[in-house]
Write a structure and sequence with these properties.
The chain is of the alpha+beta class. The protein has helices spanning about 30-40, 55-65, 70-80, 135-145, 145-150, 155-185, 195-215, 215-225, 235-300, 315-335, and strands at about 5-10, 15-20, 45-55, 85-90, 95-105, 110-120, 125-130. The protein folds into 2 domains: about 5-270, Beta Polymerase, domain 2; about 275-335, Magnesium transport protein CorA, transmembrane region (Methane Monooxygenase Hydroxylase, Chain G, domain 1), CATH 1.20.58.340. It is rod-shaped.
Length: about 350
């Protein structure tokens, strides 16, 4: 059972990281974890970072017992459909649950994962669900940055949040490009019948971003205004940058949603207008065709006393009348815009 994807001891002056494959065969926390904890207690200013990937509830409880994590927050971390949130504890602990977004270029879909971060005075525990949002690059960033390591677990929290929020910005930019492309298509002469479906699909993808970003708007305002007392002073400018990115993406989500709704209404109206034009053309041609049909039907009754029936000029005269009336009707419909 390989649920521990990263385990390491961190200090401002050095790093000792072990990679995946550290969980024991029976699913319990390895003895190495207790050794890292003892090492932290012997070295002030150091901390442990444990990274878990899609653990079972039992595996997560084993880790929770070692770090004395809040059972309610552990249940949140185990639920891959949990709403994003950030909470501060009373004992210098912090919990952040973030949605991880990834844009699929081939299908223009937005895939969603999840990462939960538990922060304590000497530990950081991350629990990740979903294939996207691998934290290997984040671990490397923390390991290479004495500044982040100097801020302890909050350096890990910042690095994880910064990676997630940067992905929000990238995904939102990609969706915005798709929105601009569809906008051009909606108001073009060769708009496809599939355009409303594309708009609806984009609204769904935009909604995925909204679900990830909206719960973070209130904390983002607090980050920007430096109202989070639990964050160390040296880290506040870093979290302020995260807050600004979150608010930027939130504004983009609102703008995209409003634009998509407007385009959906415009696309529907344009399709209705096109259908009305088609119906007017059909009606005009039916009216034109009705004239020779009616005249031919009358003269097709073959009564002996019908006018001009036995005249030599009767047949061409009737054809001339048919043509003249059809031509007049065609010009009238053309002038009115029906043809």
């Amino acid at each position: 059972m390989d649920v521990i994807k990263g385990m390491g001891w961190y200090h401002a002056d050095g790093v000792d990281i072990s990679d995946s494959g550290l969980s024991s065969g029976d699913g319990h926390v390895p003895i190495a974890l207790d050794e890292l904890r003892a090492r932290c207690e012997a070295t002030p200013g150091s901390f442990v970072w444990i990274g878990l990937f899609e653990p079972t509830r039992d595996e997560l409880r084993d880790v929770a017992e070692t770090f004395d994590l809040d059972p309610l927050l552990v249940d949140d971390a185990a639920n891959s459909s949990q709403r994003a949130k950030i909470e501060f504890g009373d004992d210098d602990t912090m919990f952040a649950l973030l949605k991880l977004l990834d844009y699929v270029e081939g299908t223009s879909d937005v895939e969603t994962g999840q990462v939960a971060v538990f922060i304590g005075t000497w530990y950081a525990v991350t629990v990740r669900h979903g294939s996207n949002g691998d934290l290997a690059g984040v671990r490397a960033r923390v390991a290479a940055s004495p500044n982040l390591r100097a801020h302890g677990p909050y350096g890990v929290l910042y690095a994880v949040m910064d990676s997630a929020v940067d992905a929000y910005v990238i995904v939102m930019d990609e969706v915005s490009e798709d929105v601009a492309s569809v906008e051009t298509e909606v108001f073009s002469d060769d708009a496809s019948r599939l355009t409303p479906q594309r708009i609806y699909n984009l609204k769904r993808e935009n909604q995925e971003i909204r679900r990830a970003i909206v719960p973070l708007v209130a904390p983002a305002h607090m980050f920007v205004n430096s109202d989070f007392d639990g964050i160390p002073n040296g880290m506040r400018r870093y979290f302020r940058d995260i807050g600004e990115h979150v608010l930027r993406v939130n504004d983009s989500v609102d703008n995209a949603d409003n634009l998509l709704m407007t385009m959906l209404m415009a696309s529907t109206s344009l399709q209705d207008l096109k259908q009305n034009r088609d119906m007017r053309k059909i009606s005009a041609w039916v009216a034109i065709a009705a004239v020779p049909t009616a005249i031919a039907a009358i003269y097709g009754m073959n009564f002996d006393n019908m006018p001009e029936l036995h005249e030599s000029w009767g047949y061409p005269a009737v054809l001339l009348v048919m043509g003249a009336i059809c031509l007049l009707l065609f010009r009238a419909f053309k002038k009115s815009g029906w043809l």
